[in-house]
Protein backbone atom coordinates (compact mmCIF):
# COMPACT_ATOMS: atom_id res chain seq x y z
CA UNK A 1 0.00 0.00 0.00
CA UNK A 2 2.74 2.47 1.01
CA UNK A 3 4.71 1.43 -2.07
CA UNK A 4 1.74 2.19 -4.32
CA UNK A 5 1.19 5.57 -2.67
CA UNK A 6 4.89 6.36 -3.14
CA UNK A 7 4.62 5.57 -6.87
CA UNK A 8 1.48 7.74 -7.25
CA UNK A 9 3.14 10.60 -5.38
CA UNK A 10 6.36 10.23 -7.43
CA UNK A 11 4.41 10.59 -10.71
CA UNK A 12 2.42 13.57 -9.40
CA UNK A 13 5.57 15.21 -8.00
CA UNK A 14 7.40 14.67 -11.30
CA UNK A 15 4.54 16.37 -13.19
CA UNK A 16 4.65 19.25 -10.72
CA UNK A 17 8.43 19.62 -11.15
CA UNK A 18 8.07 19.71 -14.95
CA UNK A 19 5.22 22.22 -14.62
CA UNK A 20 7.28 24.48 -12.35
CA UNK A 21 9.98 24.47 -15.04
CA UNK A 22 7.71 24.85 -18.10
CA UNK A 23 4.59 26.55 -16.71
CA UNK A 24 2.65 25.13 -19.66
CA UNK A 25 -0.49 23.89 -17.96
CA UNK A 26 -1.20 26.28 -15.08
CA UNK A 27 -0.64 29.36 -17.23
CA UNK A 28 -2.93 27.96 -19.94
CA UNK A 29 -5.70 26.99 -17.51
CA UNK A 30 -5.55 30.13 -15.37
CA UNK A 31 -5.14 32.41 -18.40
CA UNK A 32 -8.12 30.90 -20.25
CA UNK A 33 -10.37 30.96 -17.17
CA UNK A 34 -9.44 34.57 -16.34
CA UNK A 35 -10.19 35.56 -19.92
CA UNK A 36 -13.67 34.00 -19.66
CA UNK A 37 -14.33 35.87 -16.38
CA UNK A 38 -13.18 39.21 -17.81
CA UNK A 39 -15.28 38.81 -20.97
CA UNK A 40 -18.40 38.10 -18.89
CA UNK A 41 -17.83 41.14 -16.68
CA UNK A 42 -18.08 43.24 -19.85
CA UNK A 43 -21.00 41.25 -21.28
CA UNK A 44 -23.24 41.35 -18.19
CA UNK A 45 -24.45 44.25 -16.09
CA UNK A 46 -22.88 43.08 -12.85
CA UNK A 47 -25.15 44.47 -10.15
CA UNK A 48 -25.32 42.34 -6.97
CA UNK A 49 -28.39 40.42 -8.13
CA UNK A 50 -26.90 39.51 -11.50
CA UNK A 51 -23.54 38.59 -9.98
CA UNK A 52 -25.15 36.13 -7.57
CA UNK A 53 -27.33 34.76 -10.34
CA UNK A 54 -24.78 34.17 -13.09
CA UNK A 55 -21.44 34.28 -11.22
CA UNK A 56 -21.29 30.60 -10.17
CA UNK A 57 -22.12 29.42 -13.71
CA UNK A 58 -19.51 31.69 -15.29
CA UNK A 59 -16.85 30.59 -12.79
CA UNK A 60 -17.31 26.85 -13.30
CA UNK A 61 -17.85 27.05 -17.06
CA UNK A 62 -14.62 29.01 -17.31
CA UNK A 63 -12.70 26.50 -15.18
CA UNK A 64 -14.16 23.52 -17.06
CA UNK A 65 -13.30 24.88 -20.53
CA UNK A 66 -9.88 26.03 -19.38
CA UNK A 67 -9.26 22.68 -17.70
CA UNK A 68 -9.62 20.89 -21.03
CA UNK A 69 -6.71 22.92 -22.40
CA UNK A 70 -4.50 21.91 -19.50
CA UNK A 71 -5.52 18.26 -19.54
CA UNK A 72 -4.62 18.00 -23.22
CA UNK A 73 -1.18 19.44 -22.59
CA UNK A 74 -0.38 17.30 -19.55
CA UNK A 75 -0.66 14.06 -21.52
CA UNK A 76 0.75 15.42 -24.77
CA UNK A 77 4.09 15.98 -23.00
CA UNK A 78 4.25 12.29 -22.02
CA UNK A 79 3.57 11.18 -25.58
CA UNK A 80 5.92 13.65 -27.30
CA UNK A 81 8.87 12.28 -25.34
CA UNK A 82 7.57 8.67 -25.40
CA UNK A 83 7.85 8.79 -21.62
CA UNK A 84 4.42 7.25 -21.22
CA UNK A 85 6.00 4.07 -22.63
CA UNK A 86 8.83 4.37 -20.12
CA UNK A 87 6.21 4.41 -17.35
CA UNK A 88 4.53 1.39 -18.96
CA UNK A 89 7.85 -0.50 -18.89
CA UNK A 90 8.07 -0.17 -15.12
CA UNK A 91 6.84 -3.03 -12.92
CA UNK A 92 3.84 -1.09 -11.63
CA UNK A 93 0.18 -1.62 -12.44
CA UNK A 94 -1.36 0.76 -14.95
CA UNK A 95 -3.89 2.09 -12.46
CA UNK A 96 -1.02 3.60 -10.45
CA UNK A 97 0.06 5.48 -13.60
CA UNK A 98 -3.52 6.73 -13.95
CA UNK A 99 -3.74 7.81 -10.32
CA UNK A 100 -0.33 9.53 -10.50
CA UNK A 101 -1.32 11.44 -13.63
CA UNK A 102 -4.69 12.31 -12.08
CA UNK A 103 -2.86 13.65 -9.01
CA UNK A 104 -0.70 15.83 -11.27
CA UNK A 105 -3.77 17.16 -13.08
CA UNK A 106 -5.50 17.77 -9.74
CA UNK A 107 -2.55 19.88 -8.58
CA UNK A 108 -2.49 21.91 -11.84
CA UNK A 109 -6.21 22.69 -11.78
CA UNK A 110 -6.09 23.44 -8.04
CA UNK A 111 -3.21 25.90 -8.51
CA UNK A 112 -5.08 27.52 -11.41
CA UNK A 113 -8.14 27.91 -9.16
CA UNK A 114 -6.03 29.57 -6.45
CA UNK A 115 -5.33 32.24 -9.07
CA UNK A 116 -8.80 32.36 -10.66
CA UNK A 117 -11.16 32.31 -7.64
CA UNK A 118 -9.80 35.48 -5.94
CA UNK A 119 -10.04 37.33 -9.27
CA UNK A 120 -13.62 36.04 -9.62
CA UNK A 121 -14.41 37.33 -6.11
CA UNK A 122 -13.14 40.80 -7.01
CA UNK A 123 -14.74 41.01 -10.48
CA UNK A 124 -18.15 39.73 -9.34
CA UNK A 125 -17.96 41.30 -5.87
CA UNK A 126 -18.95 38.05 -4.15
CA UNK A 127 -17.73 36.58 -0.86
CA UNK A 128 -16.20 33.24 -1.75
CA UNK A 129 -13.44 32.77 0.84
CA UNK A 130 -15.46 30.30 2.86
CA UNK A 131 -15.09 26.64 3.85
CA UNK A 132 -18.03 25.79 1.59
CA UNK A 133 -16.09 27.09 -1.40
CA UNK A 134 -13.06 25.02 -0.43
CA UNK A 135 -15.20 21.86 -0.26
CA UNK A 136 -16.92 22.59 -3.60
CA UNK A 137 -13.63 23.40 -5.28
CA UNK A 138 -11.92 20.28 -3.92
CA UNK A 139 -14.72 17.92 -4.96
CA UNK A 140 -15.07 19.45 -8.41
CA UNK A 141 -11.32 19.38 -9.05
CA UNK A 142 -11.09 15.72 -8.05
CA UNK A 143 -13.89 14.88 -10.50
CA UNK A 144 -12.39 16.97 -13.32
CA UNK A 145 -9.03 15.28 -12.80
CA UNK A 146 -10.51 11.77 -12.62
CA UNK A 147 -12.52 12.11 -15.83
CA UNK A 148 -10.05 14.38 -17.61
CA UNK A 149 -7.07 12.10 -17.05
CA UNK A 150 -8.96 9.12 -18.46
CA UNK A 151 -10.17 10.94 -21.56
CA UNK A 152 -6.84 12.71 -22.09
CA UNK A 153 -5.21 9.27 -22.05
CA UNK A 154 -7.79 7.95 -24.50
CA UNK A 155 -7.53 10.84 -26.94
CA UNK A 156 -3.81 11.47 -26.74
CA UNK A 157 -2.96 9.20 -29.67
CA UNK A 158 -5.80 10.52 -31.78
CA UNK A 159 -4.79 13.03 -34.44
CA UNK A 160 -7.58 15.48 -33.56
CA UNK A 161 -7.09 15.20 -29.81
CA UNK A 162 -7.71 18.93 -29.19
CA UNK A 163 -11.23 18.39 -30.54
CA UNK A 164 -11.77 14.91 -29.15
CA UNK A 165 -11.05 15.68 -25.48
CA UNK A 166 -13.70 18.40 -24.97
CA UNK A 167 -16.23 16.28 -26.89
CA UNK A 168 -15.66 13.40 -24.48
CA UNK A 169 -15.00 15.37 -21.31
CA UNK A 170 -17.65 18.08 -21.16
CA UNK A 171 -20.78 15.92 -21.53
CA UNK A 172 -19.55 13.48 -18.89
CA UNK A 173 -18.70 16.16 -16.30
CA UNK A 174 -22.07 17.88 -16.75
CA UNK A 175 -23.53 16.39 -13.51
CA UNK A 176 -20.43 17.51 -11.63
CA UNK A 177 -20.64 20.99 -13.15
CA UNK A 178 -24.30 21.19 -12.14
CA UNK A 179 -23.37 20.20 -8.59
CA UNK A 180 -20.57 22.79 -8.50
CA UNK A 181 -22.74 25.59 -9.87
CA UNK A 182 -25.73 24.82 -7.66
CA UNK A 183 -23.69 24.52 -4.46
CA UNK A 184 -21.75 27.70 -5.27
CA UNK A 185 -25.09 29.47 -5.85
CA UNK A 186 -26.34 28.31 -2.43
CA UNK A 187 -23.09 29.60 -0.93
CA UNK A 188 -23.23 33.07 -2.51
CA UNK A 189 -26.84 33.43 -1.37
CA UNK A 190 -25.58 32.68 2.15
CA UNK A 191 -27.50 29.43 2.62
CA UNK A 192 -26.41 26.66 4.99
CA UNK A 193 -24.47 23.42 4.40
CA UNK A 194 -27.71 21.45 4.59
CA UNK A 195 -29.12 23.36 1.60
CA UNK A 196 -26.21 22.33 -0.58
CA UNK A 197 -25.84 18.84 0.90
CA UNK A 198 -27.56 17.01 -1.95
CA UNK A 199 -25.26 18.67 -4.51
CA UNK A 200 -22.14 17.92 -2.50
CA UNK A 201 -23.29 14.30 -2.14
CA UNK A 202 -23.71 14.13 -5.92
CA UNK A 203 -20.15 15.45 -6.35
CA UNK A 204 -18.76 12.89 -3.87
CA UNK A 205 -20.58 10.04 -5.62
CA UNK A 206 -19.34 11.26 -9.01
CA UNK A 207 -15.74 11.46 -7.79
CA UNK A 208 -15.72 8.01 -6.20
CA UNK A 209 -17.42 6.36 -9.18
CA UNK A 210 -15.18 7.93 -11.79
CA UNK A 211 -11.94 7.39 -9.87
CA UNK A 212 -12.68 3.67 -9.55
CA UNK A 213 -14.08 3.13 -13.05
CA UNK A 214 -11.43 5.27 -14.75
CA UNK A 215 -8.55 3.51 -12.98
CA UNK A 216 -9.94 0.20 -14.25
CA UNK A 217 -10.54 1.39 -17.83
CA UNK A 218 -7.17 3.14 -18.05
CA UNK A 219 -5.35 -0.20 -17.84
CA UNK A 220 -6.90 -1.22 -21.15
CA UNK A 221 -6.50 1.98 -23.14
CA UNK A 222 -2.71 2.02 -22.92
CA UNK A 223 -2.13 -1.21 -24.80
CA UNK A 224 -1.41 -1.32 -28.56
CA UNK B 1 9.20 -7.06 -5.82
CA UNK B 2 8.08 -10.63 -6.56
CA UNK B 3 10.84 -12.88 -7.84
CA UNK B 4 9.43 -14.95 -10.65
CA UNK B 5 12.65 -16.27 -12.12
CA UNK B 6 13.49 -19.87 -11.57
CA UNK B 7 17.19 -20.55 -12.05
CA UNK B 8 16.20 -24.01 -13.29
CA UNK B 9 14.29 -22.46 -16.19
CA UNK B 10 16.57 -22.67 -19.16
CA UNK B 11 14.42 -20.79 -21.64
CA UNK B 12 14.50 -17.03 -21.29
CA UNK B 13 11.81 -16.63 -23.95
CA UNK B 14 9.29 -19.06 -25.37
CA UNK B 15 6.95 -17.75 -28.06
CA UNK B 16 4.27 -20.07 -29.41
CA UNK B 17 2.25 -19.25 -32.53
CA UNK B 18 2.31 -15.53 -31.79
CA UNK B 19 0.01 -13.47 -33.98
CA UNK B 20 -0.10 -9.69 -33.98
CA UNK B 21 -2.07 -7.52 -36.38
CA UNK B 22 -2.26 -3.77 -36.58
CA UNK B 23 -5.63 -3.24 -38.19
CA UNK B 24 -5.54 -4.99 -41.57
CA UNK B 25 -1.77 -5.44 -41.45
CA UNK B 26 -0.48 -8.76 -40.15
CA UNK B 27 2.91 -8.19 -38.52
CA UNK B 28 3.54 -11.48 -36.72
CA UNK B 29 1.95 -14.53 -38.34
CA UNK B 30 2.29 -17.42 -35.93
CA UNK B 31 5.84 -16.80 -34.77
CA UNK B 32 7.48 -19.67 -32.84
CA UNK B 33 10.77 -18.95 -31.11
CA UNK B 34 12.73 -20.26 -28.13
CA UNK B 35 15.65 -18.28 -26.71
CA UNK B 36 17.81 -19.92 -24.03
CA UNK B 37 18.94 -18.02 -20.95
CA UNK B 38 22.39 -16.45 -21.11
CA UNK B 39 22.53 -15.90 -24.85
CA UNK B 40 22.88 -12.77 -26.95
CA UNK B 41 20.27 -13.01 -29.71
CA UNK B 42 20.15 -10.65 -32.63
CA UNK B 43 16.87 -10.30 -34.51
CA UNK B 44 17.38 -9.46 -38.16
CA UNK B 45 14.99 -8.68 -40.95
CA UNK B 46 13.92 -6.01 -43.32
CA UNK B 47 11.68 -3.12 -42.33
CA UNK B 48 8.27 -4.44 -41.32
CA UNK B 49 9.52 -7.97 -40.66
CA UNK B 50 8.26 -7.79 -37.08
CA UNK B 51 11.52 -7.33 -35.10
CA UNK B 52 10.50 -4.21 -33.19
CA UNK B 53 6.98 -5.53 -32.65
CA UNK B 54 8.37 -8.72 -31.13
CA UNK B 55 10.66 -6.68 -28.85
CA UNK B 56 7.71 -4.51 -27.81
CA UNK B 57 5.74 -7.67 -27.00
CA UNK B 58 8.62 -8.87 -24.79
CA UNK B 59 8.71 -5.43 -23.16
CA UNK B 60 4.94 -5.77 -22.64
CA UNK B 61 4.16 -2.57 -24.48
CA UNK B 62 2.20 -4.42 -27.15
CA UNK B 63 -0.38 -7.13 -26.59
CA UNK B 64 -0.51 -10.22 -28.77
CA UNK B 65 -3.70 -11.15 -30.62
CA UNK B 66 -3.22 -14.90 -30.15
CA UNK B 67 -0.59 -17.44 -29.16
CA UNK B 68 1.48 -17.26 -26.00
CA UNK B 69 4.74 -15.78 -24.77
CA UNK B 70 6.52 -16.75 -21.59
CA UNK B 71 9.69 -15.44 -19.98
CA UNK B 72 11.61 -17.77 -17.70
CA UNK B 73 8.54 -20.00 -17.65
CA UNK B 74 6.10 -17.25 -16.68
CA UNK B 75 3.28 -16.25 -19.05
CA UNK B 76 3.75 -12.54 -19.70
CA UNK B 77 0.07 -11.83 -20.35
CA UNK B 78 -0.96 -12.97 -16.87
CA UNK B 79 1.88 -11.63 -14.73
CA UNK B 80 2.33 -8.07 -15.94
CA UNK B 81 4.17 -6.04 -13.31
CA UNK B 82 6.37 -8.86 -11.98
CA UNK B 83 7.45 -9.93 -15.48
CA UNK B 84 8.24 -6.34 -16.44
CA UNK B 85 10.75 -6.26 -13.58
CA UNK B 86 12.72 -8.94 -15.46
CA UNK B 87 13.41 -6.77 -18.49
CA UNK B 88 15.33 -3.59 -19.17
CA UNK B 89 14.50 -1.95 -22.49
CA UNK B 90 16.11 0.59 -24.77
CA UNK B 91 13.77 1.18 -27.67
CA UNK B 92 13.88 3.67 -30.57
CA UNK B 93 13.20 6.82 -28.53
CA UNK B 94 15.27 7.52 -25.39
CA UNK B 95 11.99 7.84 -23.39
CA UNK B 96 13.36 10.44 -20.95
CA UNK B 97 11.96 13.66 -19.49
CA UNK B 98 13.80 16.31 -21.48
CA UNK B 99 13.35 19.07 -18.88
CA UNK B 100 14.67 16.97 -16.02
CA UNK B 101 18.36 16.33 -15.36
CA UNK B 102 19.93 12.92 -15.88
CA UNK B 103 19.99 12.45 -12.09
CA UNK B 104 16.32 13.44 -11.73
CA UNK B 105 15.31 11.04 -14.50
CA UNK B 106 17.20 8.14 -12.93
CA UNK B 107 15.87 8.94 -9.45
CA UNK B 108 12.33 9.04 -10.81
CA UNK B 109 12.61 5.72 -12.61
CA UNK B 110 14.28 4.18 -9.56
CA UNK B 111 11.10 5.07 -7.66
CA UNK B 112 9.01 3.47 -10.43
CA UNK B 113 11.05 0.28 -10.03
CA UNK B 114 10.91 0.62 -6.21
CA UNK B 115 14.68 0.28 -5.89
CA UNK B 116 16.67 0.61 -2.66
CA UNK B 117 20.07 2.31 -2.18
CA UNK B 118 19.28 4.48 -5.17
CA UNK B 119 22.24 6.87 -4.96
CA UNK B 120 24.73 3.97 -5.00
CA UNK B 121 22.86 2.30 -7.85
CA UNK B 122 22.88 5.48 -9.91
CA UNK B 123 26.57 6.08 -9.23
CA UNK B 124 27.43 2.54 -10.37
CA UNK B 125 25.20 2.65 -13.44
CA UNK B 126 26.30 6.02 -14.78
CA UNK B 127 29.91 4.97 -14.45
CA UNK B 128 29.11 1.82 -16.41
CA UNK B 129 27.62 3.79 -19.32
CA UNK B 130 30.05 6.72 -19.08
CA UNK B 131 27.77 9.66 -18.32
CA UNK B 132 29.18 10.84 -14.96
CA UNK B 133 30.08 14.35 -16.19
CA UNK B 134 26.54 14.87 -17.49
CA UNK B 135 24.68 13.76 -14.36
CA UNK B 136 23.31 17.22 -13.52
CA UNK B 137 22.66 18.29 -17.10
CA UNK B 138 19.12 18.50 -18.38
CA UNK B 139 18.42 15.72 -20.89
CA UNK B 140 17.32 18.32 -23.45
CA UNK B 141 20.88 19.65 -23.61
CA UNK B 142 22.47 16.25 -24.31
CA UNK B 143 23.35 14.87 -27.73
CA UNK B 144 21.32 11.94 -29.06
CA UNK B 145 24.20 9.60 -28.24
CA UNK B 146 24.30 10.70 -24.60
CA UNK B 147 20.51 10.47 -24.36
CA UNK B 148 20.82 6.87 -25.59
CA UNK B 149 23.39 6.22 -22.85
CA UNK B 150 21.02 7.63 -20.22
CA UNK B 151 18.28 5.38 -21.60
CA UNK B 152 20.68 2.47 -21.26
CA UNK B 153 21.43 3.50 -17.65
CA UNK B 154 17.68 3.52 -16.94
CA UNK B 155 17.36 0.03 -18.44
CA UNK B 156 20.30 -1.35 -16.45
CA UNK B 157 19.59 0.27 -13.10
CA UNK B 158 17.32 -2.49 -11.76
CA UNK B 159 19.73 -5.20 -12.93
CA UNK B 160 17.21 -6.99 -15.17
CA UNK B 161 17.43 -10.62 -16.20
CA UNK B 162 16.95 -9.68 -19.84
CA UNK B 163 18.05 -6.67 -21.85
CA UNK B 164 15.90 -5.69 -24.84
CA UNK B 165 17.67 -3.38 -27.29
CA UNK B 166 16.02 -1.98 -30.42
CA UNK B 167 18.75 -0.75 -32.79
CA UNK B 168 20.82 0.41 -29.81
CA UNK B 169 23.77 1.55 -31.90
CA UNK B 170 21.79 4.15 -33.86
CA UNK B 171 23.12 7.62 -33.08
CA UNK B 172 26.12 6.27 -31.15
CA UNK B 173 29.75 7.03 -32.03
CA UNK B 174 32.31 4.23 -32.31
CA UNK B 175 33.46 4.69 -28.70
CA UNK B 176 29.89 4.38 -27.43
CA UNK B 177 29.29 1.30 -29.61
CA UNK B 178 32.41 -0.31 -28.09
CA UNK B 179 31.10 0.52 -24.61
CA UNK B 180 27.73 -0.99 -25.50
CA UNK B 181 29.48 -4.16 -26.73
CA UNK B 182 31.32 -4.35 -23.42
CA UNK B 183 28.06 -4.01 -21.44
CA UNK B 184 26.46 -6.74 -23.57
CA UNK B 185 29.50 -8.99 -22.99
CA UNK B 186 29.31 -8.35 -19.22
CA UNK B 187 25.63 -9.19 -19.26
CA UNK B 188 26.22 -12.42 -21.08
CA UNK B 189 29.05 -13.46 -18.77
CA UNK B 190 26.72 -12.89 -15.80
CA UNK B 191 24.34 -15.45 -17.32
CA UNK B 192 21.82 -12.84 -18.44
CA UNK B 193 20.00 -12.69 -21.75
CA UNK B 194 20.18 -9.98 -24.41
CA UNK B 195 17.72 -9.70 -27.30
CA UNK B 196 18.48 -6.97 -29.81
CA UNK B 197 17.56 -5.78 -33.27
CA UNK B 198 19.96 -4.08 -35.61
CA UNK B 199 20.58 -3.16 -39.21
CA UNK B 200 24.36 -3.29 -38.74
CA UNK B 201 24.36 -6.98 -39.43
CA UNK B 202 28.04 -7.87 -39.70
CA UNK B 203 28.92 -6.25 -36.38
CA UNK B 204 25.94 -7.90 -34.64
CA UNK B 205 26.94 -11.36 -35.90
CA UNK B 206 30.33 -10.97 -34.23
CA UNK B 207 28.86 -10.40 -30.77
CA UNK B 208 25.75 -12.61 -30.98
CA UNK B 209 25.32 -16.25 -29.91
CA UNK B 210 22.21 -16.60 -32.03
CA UNK B 211 20.87 -14.85 -35.11
CA UNK B 212 17.20 -15.01 -36.01
CA UNK B 213 16.10 -13.71 -39.38
CA UNK B 214 12.42 -12.78 -39.40
CA UNK B 215 10.54 -12.98 -42.64
CA UNK B 216 6.93 -11.83 -42.95
CA UNK B 217 6.30 -12.25 -39.25
CA UNK B 218 7.72 -15.75 -38.91
CA UNK B 219 11.19 -17.16 -38.27
CA UNK B 220 12.95 -17.51 -41.61
CA UNK B 221 16.29 -18.65 -40.23
CA UNK B 222 17.55 -19.44 -36.73
CA UNK B 223 21.31 -19.84 -36.46
CA UNK B 224 23.20 -20.76 -33.29
CA UNK B 225 26.55 -20.14 -34.97
CA UNK B 226 26.11 -16.68 -36.41
CA UNK B 227 29.79 -15.96 -36.97
CA UNK B 228 30.34 -19.14 -38.99
CA UNK B 229 26.92 -18.97 -40.71
CA UNK B 230 27.54 -15.38 -41.70
CA UNK B 231 27.23 -15.94 -45.44
CA UNK B 232 23.95 -17.84 -45.11
CA UNK B 233 22.50 -15.25 -42.71
CA UNK B 234 23.55 -12.34 -44.89
CA UNK B 235 22.00 -14.06 -47.90
CA UNK B 236 18.73 -14.65 -46.02
CA UNK B 237 18.72 -11.08 -44.71
CA UNK B 238 19.50 -9.60 -48.14
CA UNK B 239 16.87 -11.66 -49.94
CA UNK B 240 14.22 -10.55 -47.44
CA UNK B 241 15.30 -6.95 -47.83
CA UNK B 242 15.14 -7.27 -51.61
CA UNK B 243 11.67 -8.79 -51.41
CA UNK B 244 10.36 -5.55 -49.91
Automatic annotation (TrEMBL), chain A:
It is found in: Cell inner membrane. One of its GO terms (cellular component) is plasma membrane. It comes from Candidatus Lucifugimonas marina. Keywords: Cell inner membrane, Cell membrane, Cytochrome c-type biogenesis, Membrane, Transmembrane, Transmembrane helix, Transport. The chain crosses the membrane at residues 25-46, 58-76, 96-124, 131-151, 163-181, 202-222. One of its GO terms (biological process) is cytochrome complex assembly. Its main location: membrane. It comes from the Bacteria. Required for the export of heme to the periplasm for the biogenesis of c-type cytochromes. Belongs to the CcmB/CycW/HelB family. InterPro entries: Cyt_c_biogenesis_CcmB, Cyt_c_CcmB_bac. This is Heme exporter protein B.
UniProtKB/TrEMBL annotation, chain B:
The keyword Nucleotide-binding applies. InterPro entries: AAA+_ATPase, ABC_transporter-like_ATP-bd, ABC_transporter_ATP-binding, P-loop_NTPase. GO terms for molecular function: ATP binding; ATP hydrolysis activity. Residues 13-241 form the ABC transporter domain. Gene3D superfamilies: P-loop containing nucleotide triphosphate hydrolases. Signal peptide: none annotated. It comes from the Bacteria. PROSITE patterns: ABC_TRANSPORTER_2. Keywords: ATP-binding, Nucleotide-binding, Transport. CDD domains: ABC_DR_subfamily_A (cd03230). Belongs to the ABC transporter superfamily. This is ATP-binding cassette domain-containing protein. It comes from Candidatus Lucifugimonas marina.
